[in-house]
Fold this sequence. Notes:
single chain; 750 residues; alpha/beta; ten-stranded mixed β-sheet; seven-stranded mixed β-sheet; 24 helices; 42% helix
Amino acid sequence: MSPAAETTASADASPTYSLVVVSNRLPVEIEVADDGTESWRTSPGGLVTALEPMMRSSDGAWVGWPGIADRTFEPFENDGISIVPVRLSESELEEYYEGFSNDTIWPLYHDVIAPPRFHREWWEAYVRVNRRFADAAASAAAPGATVWVHDYQLQLVPRMLRDARPDLVIGFFNHIPFPPYGIYAQLPWRKQILDGLLGADLIGFQRLADAGNFSRAVRRLYGYPTRGVAIDVPAADGKHRRVIAKHFPISIDAASYEELARRPEIQERARQIREDLGNPKTIMLGVDRLDYTKGIAHRIKAFGELLADGSLSVEDVTLVQVASPSRERVGPYIALRDEIELAVGRLNGDFSTISHTAISYHHHGYPREEMVALYLAADVMLVTALRDGMNLVAKEYVAVRFDRDGVLVLSEFAGAADELKQAVLINPHDIDGVKAAILRAVAMPRQERLRRMRALRRKVFDNDVAAWSSSFLRTLTEGAAVRPGIPDTLAGALKDLSRADSILVALDFDGTLAPHVDKPEDARAVPGTREAVQRLLDLDGVRVAFVSGRALVSLQHVSQPQTDVLLTGSHGIEVQLDTPEIELDLITAELEQLDALARVLERISGSVDGTWIERKPAGLALHTRLATPRNAAAAQKAAREELGALLPGLTVRGGKDVLEFAVRSSTKGDALERLRRHTGADQVFYAGDDTTDEDAFAVLRPGDVGLKIGAGDSLAGYRVRGPEDVPLVLGLIADSRAAVAAEREAAAGA
């Protein structure tokens, strides 16, 4: 496809795209033929691979810089994706990109391995360019569209988008680390960056620690309340907007790497590489951008000391180091290249022979096919990063090794170490430790190599880049796809409901009145809930009930209900209906089942990080909110299978990151029916967010109103975005009910 003619793009183009991706670089680059003609080609990269299918299916556009300074291109289409180029001048590249992004933010976020530089003119360029990206995205996005902004170069874009287009659903993913507060606080524009990021609905990080560092910085600098992954950010209307800061470890298209590795011509190339290197017993490989965060000098030092003390010989072991060029106009990178090449030259001069070279050093990049051949040729992969958001090279090596052989030596300071625990983990600052790990890798028995690589490959293939992108977008859209506010259709239904002689307003608690939190005991209703409930209680012919899966004692603790609120807990097994006593009766056999249930769940939870048990009067709940998706699924599967065999009569319910077991069968539908009988209500309003609330929606009758909180399939006829909208809904019911009462009084007086 030929590049669009250079022109000034119209800022008034009507927005048409339901998904907009924004990144510093576009997923395309210009190729120039021998005759001078130009054409676009898709750039290789995991992010492009992950997002291409969904962008094609969802009418998506990609906003970014095309890689050439001082040229403007009209939007165009490439391989089924709409491309929206953003112009950057040569001076902006110097100040915004090479300056603030890569000489201020990059070293600061990587633990100040190199000193960051703070220049006001760089910051001004950063603000100006971020504004241009935000304007382009806002112009491209359709009403209510999802916009996904990527990486540290564009941290101000989410807030700029939020201010310009509050209808948008905005996500941000930070591909590099986020530093601890003591380091982050050095940034003169620290509050502005946080405010920029908090414009998003969802902020993704590579590691759990990065998300925690961000939330702590928000608490220190802004004082906003944080609960687990949730941050309550004040909104312009005086209310609060919920922002989620959570880790989503990025990955690769593992299947495509294995497919390349299985090609006969690439396997032949791997054999040729070994032969060209003199067929040493062991080939060690390092593949990095030439960057001071990668620890290249540390691995060279360790290897040199092993050669010097005779632990390794150049006849047996060769180190291949690929160091692709990076930011070659930035001062620290120029100095780093000199340092690395001097170290390589000295080591080769000291230890190489006519037939064997100690380090085969390559300061250039290779196409993917050649890299896969190198991975296949390498017996040991060295990843010695001093600080790295993820390090996808480690995952690429694992994906390529379909032979299940090879050893990965991996820095514990790379994000990949959180997942690839069967690698040989190292502290790259500990040169003696690195040397010991290299010797261990070189001498590792085949059976241990196979066992470790099998485990590593399961992790990489189970959590590939497609799973990463779908997990992020699912979290983003589930929490934000429903627009804030009260739909007109819902308002009309509430007015009709208010005309009934008697009304029951029944409300789930967690996820409906209160946001979900990591610790159930920390849950509290959103501001304004108690006042709205009291307005309803003060009206004639209106009863209010809380319907929860919690034990009633727990529900009372977190909800602090008014005396007149009716309560049902444990999915209706416990009730408190206009009496001070909680009604519950379990027989001896049910109590024995509870004991057996507790033993099994406590054993399973005790073996899986991030899970815990909640005890209820007639059952137990296995919570998996803090576990990894894989561990959560494994724990829930084990619980279902073991308890299904041991106690086949148990009632089992799945919810959001929770699996509940009860010795007595009851549902929220049963609870709602009992409340209807108790109150004699003519019409019922029920609000809930969970799959367990579907049982209550299922028993609603004509004229009743069901309200789903959040996105997802539901039997409810209406929905709102989140708990912050529920007090508004309750207020509408109270307003409509009061208006009906006034009408009736006026009619009676006439």
